[in-house]
């Protein structure tokens, strides 16, 4: 098997030419990249702000109900009583 190997001096490899300067971006390509970056930023901001807003609404509703001397569970029970009373009436 080793006799099949071609052993001999290695030939030098020519150095790779330096890469050519890339062409400047067109206005359309620059706009496309700005739009992609903006969409990415909006997506990240959305993933952060939506939970914060939902938590704020939840906290605000609880604070208002607590200030009124009640809780969401009591309000829900009262709404179910009103629903039951209206269903009996019909």
UniProtKB/TrEMBL annotation:
Residues 12-22 have a biased composition (Pro residues). The keyword Membrane applies. The chain crosses the membrane at residues 44-65. It comes from Methylorubrum aminovorans. Residues 29-39 have a biased composition (Basic residues). It comes from the Bacteria. This is ABC transporter permease. Keywords: Membrane, Transmembrane, Transmembrane helix. Residues 1-39 are annotated as: Disordered.
């Amino acid at each position: 098997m080793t006799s099949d190997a071609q052993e001999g001096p290695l030939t030098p490899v020519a150095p790779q030419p330096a890469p050519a300067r890339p062409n400047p971006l067109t206005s359309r390509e620059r706009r496309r990249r700005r739009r992609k970056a903006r969409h990415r930023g909006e997506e990240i901001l959305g993933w952060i702000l939506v939970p914060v807003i939902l938590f704020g609404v939840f906290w605000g509703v609880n604070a208002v109900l607590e200030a009124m001397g009640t809780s969401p569970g009591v309000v829900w029970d009262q709404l179910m009583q009103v629903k039951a009373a209206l269903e009996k009436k019909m």
